[in-house]
């Protein structure tokens, strides 16, 4: 399995199609507000994994209902009929949920590096095949071919399982969509730790400091200082090298924008907020600790 995944990651034959699709997705979903909506910026969490719960839940529930035996010979026909109807409705609901989940997924995909786009492309094609099988299952059920409909749905579930496995690899092994800043928080000392002197901080500009092993961004306005993890939650860019405007810092790598007060993501491609650290000023020294 690992060898297959490595081959997909290294399959540069996919890059031609991947580059064309990336350009198509970027031009089809151009307005920044729409991209932010689909990235999940508005809720500080990627939207795609939330939306996929609809088809996954509906398809799995339909599979369970399809596997249930009738309760008794006398009620067999009635029970079986209502179970089949419920499965058909669930598969319809799952299919309706595929489009929004796919659109959000494509927008996230269009911001990924080449190796992750290769895995994402195979993930998308696999899910497309699964969707086709479920659509055929729905058509079979609606025309009275229940047995065939069940077989097609189980085939769809198997293919969707492969798609889910690839999606999990993309997130948990390749780090797509996860917060690259969150692991840094655990490395900040638990107790108050000096990050530098207040007088050394420029007014209204981000400054990079280290607290223990962790790079932090300090932002001073008068006597007030806010502290964020310096590693951008999107892909780990150095936020302290970004521009500040309207109370936000803009990441120099891909333009994700975070509020300096509370770390909330205002514009993507980041879907995750930026962690903020507690700060106090004592005897002219700025101290920071783990939340
Ligand atoms: S690393 Fe991509 S926006 Fe910061």
From TrEMBL:
- Which molecular function GO terms apply here? 2 iron, 2 sulfur cluster binding; metal ion binding; monooxygenase activity; oxidoreductase activity, acting on paired donors, with incorporation or reduction of molecular oxygen
Iron: is it a keyword of this entry?
A: yes
Every Rieske domain range: 193-288
| Residue intervals passing through the bilayer | 89-107, 119-140, 152-172
Its keywords, alphabetically, are: 2Fe-2S, Iron, Iron-sulfur, Membrane, Metal-binding, Transmembrane, Transmembrane helix
What is the name of the protein in this document? (2Fe-2S)-binding protein
Q: Which organism is it from?
A: Actinoplanes utahensis
